[in-house]
Amino acid sequence: MASKRVDSARLRRRARVRKKVVGTDKRPRVCVFRSSKHIYAQVISDDQGKTLVAVSTLSDQLRDTEHKASKGVALAKSVGLALAKGCKEKNIVDVVFDRNGFLYHGRVKAVADGAREGGLRF
Fold first, then answer.
1. pLDDT digits over 3-22, tens only?
2. What are the contacts of 41-45 at 24+ separation with CB within 8 A?
3. What is the domain-level CATH number for residue 59?
4. DSSP-derived 3-state class of residue 53
5. Domain range for residue 41?
6. pTM of the predicted protein model
7. Angle 44-5-104 (CA atoms, 0-180°, nearest 5)?
8. Residue 32: what are its φ and ψ, rounded to 5°?
9. Who is most buried in 22, 31, 56, 85, counting CB within 10 A?
């Protein structure tokens, strides 16, 4: 029962944030989702309704042996770095960060830090 309340609270936070955070073609939205095992990040243009770049801990880029050893925050940071690399290939530099209702802490913050380190500007 407790997880149902926590999830509905996250959905309320998500709706409140999405009123203000909109990704355009010039500044697409970086949306982060975290599950108990994996973390996903994608760059979305709300004008076109398309996902421009998507990276997760399940993607082929992060499945090599180097990243298998890392977990948690370290793996989330590498997701952010991989996302920034994919954005550079598509000439995307400026983005808007959407935490998707999750608290800006831990793995969500690590994705943002990795993306900034990779060259994205929030």
1. 666 688 999 999 999 999 99
2. 41/79, 41/80, 41/83, 41/111, 41/115, 43/83, 43/86, 43/87, 43/92, 43/95
3. 3.30.420.100
4. strand
5. 2-118
6. 0.89
7. 45
8. -115, 135
9. 31
> Which tokens belong to 71?
């977990």
| Block residue for tokens 């203000």 | 20
Structurally, how many domains does the chain consist of?
A: 1
Helix (H, G, I), strand (E, B) or coil at 70: coil
CB 107 within 8 A of CB 39: yes
User: What angle is formed at CA 106 by the lines to CA 40 and CA 33, rounded to 5 degrees?
Assistant: 20
Q: In what order do the strands lie in the sheet with 29-34?
A: 50-56, 39-45, 29-34, 96-98
